[in-house]
Design goal:
By secondary structure, this protein is an alpha/beta fold. Helix content is 46%, strand content 6%.
């Protein structure tokens, strides 16, 4: 691999730049002491510190010029940072020259002027350091955690941050509510207006569409030509992999959302209703955004009285997983996941016990429990159920017929069972059904189409 020596030495800039800062502060301290206590030894020490500061500042400036050759920085911020650094080195050299002059007739210049120039250089270093922090870490890096009373002095008044409001599911704009937040969290620290790595700014839709020096950032409908997707899916050991410098990688879910967004046309403004998003993707979006979380439910939860606390305790003692849907609702979610290998009599007893809380039972997972037709009949009386996972239970077309009574059911997983096309008649009667899993069943494609013609908008996995 070709070695870029300028960038190699340039990357020592963050190390080198701190050396003159420490020396100049030390020199300023000695200068204050000298104002009260004259000493030839003290004066010599200040002069040595000044020349050491000038040399180290020169090396820092050179390394800064080298690293800036790689680009990726805001030109205006870089301009001022660079010239402030050079001015500091020149000022320190001037102070050193003034102090070296042994002519007693220029004592005013030697003591007063040199002191003012020295203190001015410290102010310039502070300003230059702030600009350097902005270029490296983003705008406002130094002031982000500044105490409130100092912010009121040094920072222009900002609008108070408002709590993020999660929109209703059908109003979600994939770019605004998902893609841009992902880019902000994982990419914008290196691709913003102050730090343009690869000449790419990912802070707005306009700058994303503009792209960077490596080509088109996003090409609607074409993953191969979309440089952003190419970079985030490279092996992590690749020099072109993004995010770089060991920053947190995008998760598979985040990459999946970006992939779907590009494939669907990379629209920046349409919500999922206007894009005619399929139900499967809607469920993924809802889960990712937490739209079915507290206070952000797509459908208003029914109000029910609290479940009997004694029954709840007994169910938990049976090792059933019992959870509230939200902290402000009495609706419950129950799972048999921990006791799937229990005896048939124990399973039957637990199903019967659930009848005591059927008014509050909103979601139920009884997968892989060896259910009998009698137990399915009991489940069919849980009229508040909206989600039922009943897969891996040797279901038959006849045994599931009672489930047609569940008229609030929107999600049903009946996969890995012996169901055939005859079961379609049962599913047709559940008018509320939106998502049906029939994976590893004998239901045919024609049977699925028949059901979809009856229940418009239903999503069937087979």
């Amino acid at each position: 691999m070709h070695t870029d020596w300028s960038l190699f030495f340039g990357r020592f800039h963050p190390l080198l730049v701190h050396i003159p800062i420490g020396i100049i502060l030390f020199a300023a301290l000695l200068n204050v002491i000298e104002a009260y206590k004259k000493s030839a030894l003290l004066s010599a020490a200040i002069n040595i510190a000044l020349i050491a500061c000038f040399i180290s500042a020169s090396f820092a400036a050179i390394s800064g010029l080298l690293i800036s050759s790689g680009g990726g920085y805001n030109n205006n911020t870089l301009f001022w940072h660079k010239w402030i650094g050079i001015c500091v080195a020149v000022l320190i050299f001037i102070v050193w020259m003034i102090r070296r002059n042994e002519n007693t007739d220029v004592r005013f210049l030697k003591i007063t002027l040199s002191s003012w120039l020295l203190y001015s250089s410290i102010i310039l270093i502070s300003i230059g350091g702030h600009l350097g922090g902005n270029m490296t870490h983003g705008d406002g890096y130094l002031t982000k955690y500044m105490p409130g009373f100092l912010k009121s002095i040094f920072v222009s008044k900002e609008k108070p941050q408002q709590k993020k409001i999660i929109p209703p599911l059908d109003s979600v704009v994939v770019f605004t509510d998902i893609i841009q937040p992902i880019l902000n969290a994982k990419c914008v620290s290196c691709h913003n207006r102050d730090k343009l790595k690869g000449e790419l700014d990912l802070t707005t839709s306009q700058t994303i569409m503009k792209g960077g020096k490596s080509g088109n950032t996003i090409v609607a409908g074409d993953l191969e030509k979309s440089e952003l997707f190419h970079r985030i899916t490279l092996p992590q050991e690749s020099t072109k992999y993004m995010p770089a410098d060991n920053r947190p990688a995008l998760t598979p879910i985040e990459i999946g959302f970006i992939k779907r967004w590009i494939e669907s046309g990379a629209d920046y403004t349409k919500n999922i209703t206007a894009q005619e998003t399929d139900n499967k993707t809607k469920y993924l979006i809802a889960a990712y955004l937490g739209i079915d979380a507290e206070n952000n439910l797509e459908i208003k939860l029914p109000e029910v009285s609290p479940a009997d606390s004694v029954v709840i305790r007994q169910l938990k003692e049976m090792k059933l997983v019992v959870r509230s849907i939200t902290s402000k609702s009495n609706l419950l979610e129950v799972s048999f996941v921990m006791i799937q290998k229990s005896s048939p009599s124990q399973i039957s007893s637990m199903i019967e016990k659930l009848s005591a809380i059927k008014q509050q039972l909103y979601r139920l997972d009884v997968s892989n429990c060896g259910l009998t037709q009698e137990e399915i009949k009991i489940i069919s009386t849980f009229s508040s159920l909206t989600k039922l996972q009943i897969q891996k239970n040797n279901l038959t077309d006849e045994s599931i017929e009672p489930l047609s009574a569940l008229q609030q059911l929107t999600i049903l997983n009946a996969g890995q069972s012996n169901l055939t096309d005859k079961s379609i008649n049962t599913f047709k009667k559940i008018s509320s059904l939106k998502k049906l899993n029939l994976w590893q069943t004998q239901v045919t494609e024609q049977g699925s189409k028949d059901l979809q013609s009856q229940l418009k908008g239903i999503d069937i996995d087979r």
